[in-house]
Specification:
By secondary structure, the protein is α/β, with parallel strands linked by helices. Helices cover 46% and strands 19% of the residues. The strands form 2 sheets. It has a 6-stranded mixed β-sheet with strand order 3-2-1-4-5-11, with helices on both faces. It has a 5-stranded mixed β-sheet with strand order 8-7-6-9-10, with helices on both faces. β4, α4 and β5 form a beta-alpha-beta unit. α5 packs across α11, α7 crosses α9 and α9 runs parallel beside α10. The chain starts with a helix and ends in a 12-residue tail after the last strand. Bound molecules: 5'-O-[(R)-(carboxyoxy)(hydroxy)phosphoryl]adenosine and zinc ion (ZN). The site of zinc ion has 5 residues, from α5.
């Protein structure tokens, strides 16, 4: 019997097993991470080797450099993840891996490592979408949280509103027509001369500034649940260039505050609209920008006023990590989804 035929049987058996230990791997961008998650909710270990310091001097992630550093780190991260979890390889029930979306060379490192591990341990391999993982980060952070809910997805690569009908059933309500919100944060930070990654830097600086500038979001999408952030980003770029040309002083904190207020208003307004439209009174935030202080503060104000609940992942699960992939994989397994064979490849773009 071939590996995959054996795995089809094991996968079905695992669906009904009481305690399932999944070892998950995430390498879609500049974090190499391996985690051991029990039953989709209990994180036994979550090791993250961040490459931020390496990429900072380039002002952003250099894909080739990211791939090489994943290769250098991944074996040690595996050892550490097993040691912290206090388990041996033969106790793992399945391997989960992010196969997309992300940088293809970076993803390839995780995917190939996962395939080798699954094959050598003769256990199933589960292919997980990165965005799905970001949603599942909330199952780890909030043990009682269950679908249905509305998800505000705010990462560096995606910005969308989704109706999460069940663990593996999603409906896209709206998405960005141009830049992802994290991308806009990073670009604005760059123009202000702040280090990479820009989102947390803007978040910090905005606490010190005043809302002095009225950046605007295109009105053409007002009646939809779609987003556009390229206009506000260009607004900041033009303001900074104008002031530089005129030799005027640039108050970075005021610009950061004005930009952040503008985009968080838009995110909150559309999220509240999605809640009203669906009648689901539960909003779940997912993705790196979910770590933003002001976004969380404002969402909670909106929620109080409009009577809905808000959930965000705890800070360490907002940005990229393997635990969220292990959680998503568990619920995929329970529904009989995601079993991959050894032909699995990395994909730069995937649908949820
Ligand atoms: O979800 P994530 O770790 O990676 C992707 O899947 O894209 O998101 C990374 C993005 C970056 O754009 C980063 O600047 C942004 O999340 N980010 C933040 C904050 N922390 C991370 N943006 C605003 N405020 C933050 N505190
Ligand atoms: Zn991510």
């Amino acid at each position: 019997m071939s590996y995959f035929d054996r795995m089809k049987i094991k996968f079905q058996e695992l669906r009904h097993k009481n305690d399932v230990l999944i070892l998950s791997i995430e390498s879609s961008c500049d974090e190499t991470s391996i985690s051991v998650v029990k039953n989709g909710r209990e994180v036994l270990s979550n090791i993250i080797a961040s490459q931020i310091e390496i990429h900072r001097r380039f002002g952003g992630v250099v894909p080739e450099v990211a791939s090489r550093n994943h290769i250098l780190a991944i074996s040690n991260i595996l050892d550490e993840a097993l040691e912290v979890a206090g388990i041996k390889k033969n106790q793992i029930d399945a391997i989960a891996v992010t196969y997309g979306a992300g940088l293809v060379g970076a993803l390839m490192v995780g995917v190939n490592f996962a395939k080798a591990l699954a094959y050598s341990l003769d256990i199933p391999l589960i292919a997980v979408s990165h965005v799905h993982g970001h949603i599942a980060a909330n199952y780890i952070s909030h043990p009682d949280l269950k679908p249905p809910f509305v998800c505000l997805m705010v990462s560096g690569g995606h910005t969308a509103l989704l109706e999460i009908k069940d663990y593996n059933s999603f409906k896209l309500l709206g998405s960005t027509v141009d830049d992802a919100v994290g991308e806009a944060f990073d670009k604005v930070a760059r123009v202000l001369g702040l280090p990479y990654p820009g989102g947390p830097e803007i978040d910090k600086l905005a606490k010190l500034g005043q809302k002095k500038y009225d950046f605007v979001i295109s009105h053409s999408l007002q009646n939809t649940l779609n987003f556009s952030f390229s206009g506000v980003k260009t607004g900041v770029v033009n303001l900074v260039h104008n002031k530089t040309q005129k030799g005027e002083e640039i108050n970075k904190a005021d610009i950061a505050t004005s930009f952040q207020e503008c985009v968080t208003d838009e995110l909150c307004t559309k999220a509240a609209k999605a809640i009203k439209m669906t009648g689901i009174e539960k909003l779940v935030v997912a993705g790196g920008v979910g770590a933003n202080y002001r976004l969380n503060e404002k969402l909670r104000e909106f929620a109080k006023e409009k009577n809905f609940e808000v959930f965000s992942p705890v800070l360490k699960y907002c940005t990229d990590n393997a635990a969220m992939i292990g959680s998503a994989a568990y619920y995929m397994l329970k529904d009989g989804l995601g079993l991959a064979d050894l032909s699995l490849t990395a994909k730069p773009n995937v649908n949820l």
